[in-house]
Design a protein that fits this description.
Rev_trsase/Diguanyl_cyclase; alpha+beta; Alpha-Beta Plaits; Beta-Lactamase; Nucleotide_cyclase; 341 residues; 10 strands; 5-stranded antiparallel sheet
């Protein structure tokens, strides 16, 4: 009597599970288990051979194993989705598109930039909002913000070059400062002698990078490089040879720094490097690489009236607390010392 009750309970439970999952394979396994249980319990009572009873046990066991497998598959949604059919290319492209939409592209660009889709601005970074003096850029028409026929424009008393790229209905607009080479021996943003950013732009850009580091809790390192000439003679040093060595030094700096790093030529001839997302150890490592190459500017065996030394000063901001460009620059100057191997 207990055996009949147990078999009925198990069969009813299995039927409920399979009906709820809608698995045809599960229904077959359920039926197999029921037939096996029936054969296992009824055949001994009918006086049949014990072989039939053991055959019923085997059928019931096989059915139960199949049921367990079906139940596990039914409760694994990822596996279930994969079994329903292969993933199409269009579904994959849609998923990748949604991932791209979740990334704020413009916030990664240090220059004023905005991104638009189908003529409507979707994202604009802090720099372009400050430049335009408005915070409601998102949702506006792109052509209302930036005239598509313009390649140059004046904003805030400064000239800007407009770079625009359109791909499949999406537009990325980037503004870059336009150097004024007619303003004497220094321009507003670009130093005409070296091609590095100017001393005037260093303060503006430095404050912006400090604010970015504070807002996103990111590292910011500052490295100050000074090339010194040690006179080996009693007379004055030839200016042409010093200028040639200095320009070689500038070329090494440009070649060594990353694309995300920024170099500025200060009024005293020092080179200031702003290194976003770089620890203080990384700034010293970069200085070491530049110094190694600077030591090779004067070719071995050549006779020169001077010896060159590269000095370095460093400051670091970890994104916590408050600081300013003037404080970081003062710290870098105070730490300016000859770095010996």
């Amino acid at each position: 009597m207990w055996a009949v009750f147990l078999s009925s309970y198990l069969t009813a439970t299995a039927c409920y599970v399979m009906n709820s999952t809608g698995s045809s394979m599960g229904q077959f396994c359920c039926n197999l288990s029921a037939q096996g249980l029936l054969l296992a319990f009824v055949s001994p009572a009918a006086g049949a051979s014990p072989v039939l009873a053991w055959l019923g046990v085997a059928l019931a066991s096989a059915g139960m194993v199949g049921l367990i497998s079906c139940i596990q598959k039914a409760h694994n949604p990822l596996k279930k989705d994969l079994l329903e059919g292969p993933i199409s290319i269009s579904d994959l492209q849609t998923e990748l598109k949604s991932m791209e939409d979740s990334i704020d592209i413009t916030s990664k660009i240090p220059l004023p930039a905005l991104w638009a889709r189908d003529g409507t601005v979707e994202s604009a970074n802090r720099e372009i909002k400050l430049l335009l003096g408005r915070d409601d850029i998102e949702g506006s028409g792109l052509n209302e913000i930036i005239n598509p026929s313009l390649h140059e424009l004046d904003l805030g008393g400064t000239g800007w070059l407009v770079f625009r790229k359109t791909v499949e209905g999406e537009d990325v607009v980037l503004l870059a400062p336009k150097g004024d080479v007619s303003a004497g021996d220094s321009s507003e943003f670009v130093d005409p002698k070296t091609g590095l950013y100017s001393d005037r732009y260093a303060r503006k850009r430095g404050e912006e990078e400090i604010e970015r580091a504070r807002r996103y809790r990111r590292w910011l390192s500052m490295a100050l490089l000074k090339l010194e000439f040690e006179n080996l003679t009693s007379g004055p040093l030839p200016q042409s040879m010093m200028d040639e060595a200095y320009m070689k030094f500038i070329g090494l700096v440009k070649k060594t720094i990353r694309t995300t790093d920024m170099g500025f030529r200060l009024k005293d001839g020092c080179v200031l490097l702003l290194l976003p997302e770089t620890p203080s150890s990384g700034a010293r490592t970069l200085f070491g690489r530049i110094k190694t190459q600077v030591d090779k500017i004067i070719e071995e065996g050549s006779v020169t009236p001077f010896r060159i030394n590269l000095l370095g000063g460093f400051s670091f901001y970890g994104g916590n607390g408050t600081t300013s460009y003037s404080q970081m620059l003062e710290e870098a100057y105070s730490n300016l010392a000859l770095n010996e191997d």
